């Protein structure tokens, strides 16, 4: 379990092709300071398991399912990634409940800078748009953000999209500060919305029985 509060930007130092998987080696002095074999670390919002440890680095295997459903397969040596250790029981929940289970990928449509923040629009798969609401929570590349606006149908035919407002800290301390239009990002919608949908669907089926 995570909170979506990125602890540091790590750097990919090696990418090993394992055939139906990829082993990523990532430098992250903060998240490896107390890491052990088998621990969970979120990499761009995707929960990965520590397989090996080195000097301020850790290695994690990314299975085919994760490569298909996330943007981790796009990573190369030198790329920066957002890192967060699993949260501890009793810690402050500064972001929101994040599982580290990526629901799909979106694409940066555009960025609109302002004096103190930057508004970023992100195209979202149609199947995920229904879980987003204005002022609700969403995880973008492992970063807990508040949704500013959701548009299901756009006259420009861009498809569903949502926007987020990035404060200076987010721009400086996460990889979202350097993402460009066209870049893919990992998305995880609020798990509470999916539970509500499931429960309401089961209730509707029961009423019809």
Question: Can you tell me the number of structural domains?
Answer: 2
Q: Which fold name is given in CATH as the topology of the largest domain?
A: Elongation Factor Tu (Ef-tu), domain 3
Low-confidence stretches: none
Can you list the strand order of the major beta sheet? 4-3-7-1-2-6-5
Query: What Rg, in angstroms, do the CA atoms define?
Result: 18 Å
Helix and strand composition category = alpha+beta
Report the β-strand fraction as a percent range.
35-45%
What distance lies between the first and last C-alpha atoms, to the nearest angstrom? 37 Å
CATH class of the largest domain: Mainly Beta
Mean pLDDT: 91
CATH architecture of the largest domain: Beta Barrel
Number of strands: 13
Secondary-structure element order, as H and E? EEEEEEHEEEHEEEHEH
Number of helices: 4
Share of helix, binned? 10-25%
Shape call? globular
Largest sheet: 7 strands, antiparallel
Sequence-ordered SSE layout with sheet pairings:
Layout: E1 8-17, E2 21-27, E3 40-43, E4 46-49, E5 52-53, E6 57-63, H1 64-69, E7 80-85, E8 104-113, E9 118-123, H2 126-129, E10 137-140, E11 143-151, E12 161-166, H3 168-173, E13 184-189, H4 191-208
Antiparallel strand pairs: 1-2, 1-7, 2-6, 3-4, 3-7, 5-6, 8-9, 8-13, 9-12, 10-11, 10-13, 11-12
